[in-house]
Write a structure and sequence with these properties.
heterodimer, A: mainly alpha, Non-ribosomal Peptide Synthetase Peptidyl Carrier Protein, Chain A, 4 helices, 0% strand, globular, B: 651 residues, alpha+beta, Glutamine Phosphoribosylpyrophosphate, subunit 1, domain 1, Rossmann fold, 4 domains, six-stranded antiparallel beta sheet
Chain lengths: 84, 651
C-alpha cells in the first residue's frame, strides 16, 4: 500500500512540478523545499491532489513540512489519515 | 531624446561607413521620428534620429563645435542646461543655438569628461574629437538612456538599441547562454553582458574612450551609502522632510523644461501621485495625466487614479488593458525590449506610451525610482522580517509576519509558520551573505531553469550568476547597513537592467515618448542615500519620509494605502479560450528543438498547464513568460538577420 502511495505521489510530483523531467531519480527522502521543487502555491496544488486522490481531508494545521516535504513523509501522513 | 549610432576605428571606406550608419540609424526611426542626420569623420561616423523636444528649430544632430574639432551624437536631456549655459556665457562663451546639445559640446570642450559631474540629466552620447582622434561614449548615472556596443570588422560600433548593431552585415543574433542563466536567476543580465553574444552594454555611470584602436572603460559615478558603523548626529526629521519636498519640487520643475508639453503617468500609487501633484503646481500648461486600467481587480488601480486626477483637477486619460491585449502585443513588445523577461509588465506600458503619442505628446514624468531610493519594495521589508525571524529560529509566531507582507498573494495566507520559515529561508547562518536580502528571490527564480535544455545546461556548466553578482559589489559594500545593501542591489542592477529598460526606455521610445524621472535627479539620489535606514523603512512602514513629504499634496488615503506593486496578468494572458493563435507556433516542439535552449517535452507540459489556467505559482509564471519571451526575441532578430541577408543579396 505504502509503495503504491509513493509511486502515485512521485508520478504527480514529476509530472506537475518537474514537468516530466525524470532524468534524476526522485528519492523518497528528497526535500521538496530544499531542492526548489515546490513553492508556496505548489504546496496547495499538492494538498488539493492528495485530498482528491486519497479521499482525505487536510486541515490547515496539517500543512507543515513534517507531513509533506518528502515522498516518505507524505506516504506516512496519508497512511495515518486513512487509518484515523 | 533620440536614437544614436556610430563607429570608430577600423579601415572602413567612407562609402562603407556611410552605408553602415544608414543601416543602423534606419532601425532607430521609432526613437526619433522628427529627423535624421549622419556625419562622417576621418576615422569615425556618427548618426542620429531626432525626437525634437528642446531647441526645436536649431537642435539638429550630429552637431559639430564651431571650429569643427568636436562632433556629438546625443540621446537624452540635460535638465540643468539653462544654468550651465548661463554660466558658460558669463565666462565668455557664445552660443549659436538654444539646444542643450550645444551646451554639452561647449562644456566638453572646456572640461573634457570632467563635465559629466556637472550634468543633471539622462543621457547617452558619443563625442568625437578629430584633433586627438578620440571617441568618448558616456552614459548617465542611473542608466536611463541605453548604449550598446560591439567590435566588428576591426572597428567599435555603438547604438542606442541592439537591433541597430544587428543590422550590420555579418552580425548575427545569438542568445548568450550565460545571459540567459543570469536573467533566469537575477531577472537582469549583469552589464556589460546583454542577451546577445558579442553585444555589450556600456554600464550606467560609465564612460568609454576609444583611441588608436584601444578601448578603455571606467566608471565616472557609482551609487554609494554611508558606513553604518559611523555615528552621525541625525538632523531633525522635520528639516529632512522639508528638504526632500523642496528637492523633489525642483527636480520636477527642471523636468518640465521642454519646448513641447510634458505629461505625467498616474498609477494611483504614492510615487506618481506625488510627482503629478508637484507638476500640476508648476507646469506652464495644463497637466495631462495618463493611466493604465485592468479588468482584473488584483491589477486595477483606476479608483485611486480617478481620485488623484480629481484632486489635481487635471485632464486624465486611461488606457484599458486586458489579457487579450497583452497576448496580442507581446511579440511586438519583445522586438523593442530586446531582452528575455520573466513578466509581461512591459506590455501594458507599451500600450500606454502609444496612447501618449496618439495624444500628440512626446514626454511624460513618472514616479520611477522612488521604490529603490526610499525602500518601497516588499523585498526590503521581507529581508527585515527574515532577519527578525532568524534571530529566534524556533519561534512559530514570527514567520506569520510574512503573511502581512504579501496580502495580495493568497497562497501565503494558507501557509503554516513552519512552511513560511522554510520558504523565506530564515536561518540565521546567512546574515553575512552580501546577497542576503535577495536570496529567496534568486532561488525561486532559478527554479525556472528546470526547463533549460541539456545542451544549454552543458554550455552554462557550473557557472553561478549569484557568485558573479557578488563579485561585482563595491569594496565598501560590507560596511553598509543591510537595508542599504539591499537598496544597492535594486538600484545598481534591477533598476537599469529591467525597470528603466524593459519597462522604461524601450517601451516608451517604441512610440517616440521620452520618460522623465524626478526621483532620479542626482540631488535626490544623494539625499536618499545619506538618509538613515529608519527614515526610509520605519519598522515595516515603507517610504516613511516620502509619505511625510507627500502630506498636503497627495490625499491621505493614497499616502496611507497599502502598496500595490505594478503587475500585469502573466500566464493568465495565455489561458484558454483566448489563448493567442501564435502560441502554438512560437512554442512548437520543432521550433524549440531548433532553438535548442529549452526542453521541448517539459515546455509542452508547462504550456498545457498555462492554457488550462493552472499555472498559478511564481516559478511556473516566470518560466513560461521567460521561455516565451526568449523564443519571440530570437524570432524577431533572426527575422531581421534574414531580411538583412536578403537586402544584401539584392544589393
Amino acid at each position: 500500500m505504502s509503495d503504491e502511495i509513493k509511486t502515485t505521489v512521485r508520478t504527480f510530483v514529476v509530472e506537475n512540478f518537474l514537468f516530466g523531467d525524470d532524468s534524476q531519480p526522485l528519492a523518497s527522502d528528497l526535500s521538496f523545499i530544499d531542492n526548489d521543487l515546490i513553492d508556496s502555491t505548489g504546496i496547495l496544488e499538492l494538498v488539493g491532489f492528495l485530498e482528491e486522490r486519497f479521499a482525505i481531508t487536510v486541515a490547515d494545521a496539517d500543512i507543515v513540512p513534517a507531513n509533506l516535504d518528502t515522498i516518505d513523509r507524505i506516504a506516512g501522513f496519508i497512511a495515518r489519515k486513512q487509518a484515523a | 531624446m533620440c536614437g544614436i549610432a556610430g563607429y570608430c576605428g577600423g579601415t572602413l571606406s567612407p562609402e562603407r561607413g556611410a552605408d553602415y550608419l544608414r543601416r543602423m540609424v534606419a532601425t532607430l526611426r521609432h526613437r526619433g521620428p522628427d529627423g535624421e542626420g549622419t556625419l562622417l569623420r576621418t576615422e569615425a561616423g556618427l548618426a542620429h534620429r531626432r525626437l525634437a523636444i528642446v531647441g526645436l528649430a536649431d537642435g539638429a544632430q550630429p552637431m559639430a563645435s564651431e571650429n569643427g574639432a568636436l562632433a556629438v551624437a546625443f540621446n537624452g536631456e540635460i535638465y540643468n542646461y539653462v544654468e550651465l549655459r548661463e554660466d558658460l556665457i558669463a565666462r565668455g562663451h557664445r552660443f549659436h543655438t538654444q539646444s542643450d546639445t550645444e551646451v554639452l559640446l561647449a562644456l566638453f570642450a572646456r572640461n573634457g569628461v570632467d563635465c559629466l559631474a556637472d550634468l543633471n540629466g539622462d543621457f547617452a552620447f558619443a563625442i568625437h574629437d578629430e584633433a586627438s582622434r578620440t571617441l568618448v561614449l558616456a552614459r548617465d548615472r542611473m542608466g536611463v538612456r541605453p548604449l550598446y556596443y560591439a567590435e566588428h570588422e576591426g572597428a567599435l560600433f555603438f547604438a542606442s538599441e541592439i537591433k541597430a548593431l544587428l543590422a550590420l552585415p555579418g552580425m548575427t543574433a545569438e542568445i548568450d547562454p550565460l545571459a540567459l542563466d543570469q536573467i533566469f536567476t537575477l531577472w537582469f543580465p549583469i552589464p556589460p553582458r546583454t542577451a546577445f553574444r558579442g553585444i555589450r552594454e556600456l554600464p550606467p555611470g560609465h564612460l568609454m574612450t576609444v583611441r588608436d584602436g584601444r578601448i578603455a572603460i571606467r566608471p565616472w559615478w557609482q551609487a554609494s551609502f554611508p558606513d553604518h558603523r559611523e555615528t552621525t548626529t541625525p538632523r531633525p526629521p522635520h528639516d529632512r522632510t522639508e528638504e526632500l519636498r523642496a528637492l523633489l519640487a525642483d527636480a520636477t520643475r527642471l523636468r518640465l523644461r521642454a519646448d513641447v508639453p510634458v505629461g505625467a503617468y498616474l498609477s494611483g500609487g504614492l510615487d506618481s501621485s506625488f510627482i503629478a501633484a508637484l507638476a500640476a503646481e508648476t507646469a506652464p500648461h495644463d497637466l495631462r495625466t495618463f493611466s493604465l486600467t485592468f479588468d482584473s481587480a488584483e491589477h486595477d488601480e483606476s479608483g485611486w487614479q480617478r481620485k488623484m486626477a480629481a484632486t489635481l483637477g487635471v485632464t486624465s486619460e486611461s488606457v484599458a488593458c486586458d489579457a487579450q491585449a497583452i497576448a496580442a502585443l507581446f511579440p511586438e513588445t519583445m522586438r523593442h525590449v530586446e531582452s528575455p523577461v520573466l513578466r509581461t509588465a512591459p506590455v501594458p506600458l507599451h500600450l500606454l506610451s502609444s496612447r501618449v503619442r496618439e495624444s500628440g505628446m512626446k514626454a511624460v514624468l513618472t514616479g520611477e525610482g522612488a521604490d529603490e531610493l526610499f525602500a518601497g519594495y516588499d523585498i526590503f521589508r521581507e529581508a527585515r522580517v527574515r532577519r527578525f525571524c532568524g534571530r529566534q529560529p524556533g519561534s512559530t509566531r514570527r514567520p506569520l509576519l510574512f503573511q502581512r507582507l504579501y496580502p495580495y498573494l493568497p497562497g501565503l495566507k494558507q501557509q503554516s509558520p513552519e512552511y513560511l520559515a522554510r520558504f523565506f529561508a530564515t536561518g540565521s547562518e546567512t546574515f553575512d551573505d552580501p546577497l542576503y536580502s535577495h536570496r529567496p528571490r534568486f532561488r525561486s527564480t532559478a527554479a525556472a531553469k528546470l526547463f533549460f535544455s541539456a545542451g544549454l545546461r552543458r554550455e552554462i556548466g557550473d557557472y553561478d550568476a549569484t557568485a558573479e553578482l557578488a563579485e561585482r559589489l563595491p569594496a565598501d559594500f560590507s560596511r553598509w547597513h543591510p537595508l542599504h545593501q539591499a537598496q544597492y542591489l535594486e538600484t545598481a542592477f534591477l533598476l537599469p537592467g529591467y525597470i528603466l529598460s524593459s519597462q522604461g526606455d524601450r517601451v516608451m521610445m517604441a512610440n517616440g515618448v521620452e520618460g522623465r524621472f524626478p526621483f532620479l535627479d542626482p540631488r535626490v539620489v544623494d539625499f536618499a542615500a545619506a538618509l538613515p535606514p529608519e527614515a526610509k523603512l520605519c519598522g515595516l512602514r515603507e517610504k516613511h519620509i516620502l509619505k511625510q513629504a507627500a502630506h498636503g499634496l497627495v490625499p491621505a488615503e493614497i499616502v496611507n494605502r497599502p502598496k500595490q506593486p505594478y503587475r500585469a496578468p502573466d500566464s493568465e494572458a495565455f489561458t484558454a479560450p483566448a489563448a493567442a493563435a501564435w502560441l502554438d507556433t512560437a512554442l512548437s516542439p520543432e521550433r524549440l528543438a531548433e532553438t535548442g535552449l529549452f526542453n521541448p517535452p517539459a515546455v509542452a507540459k508547462l504550456k498545457d498547464k498555462v492554457i488550462r489556467g493552472q499555472a498559478t505559482g511564481f516559478r511556473d509564471n516566470a518560466a513560461f513568460i521567460g521561455i516565451l519571451s526568449t523564443e519571440l526575441l530570437r524570432d524577431a532578430f533572426a527575422a531581421q538577420s534574414t531580411q538583412h541577408s536578403a537586402q544584401t543579396g539584392m544589393g
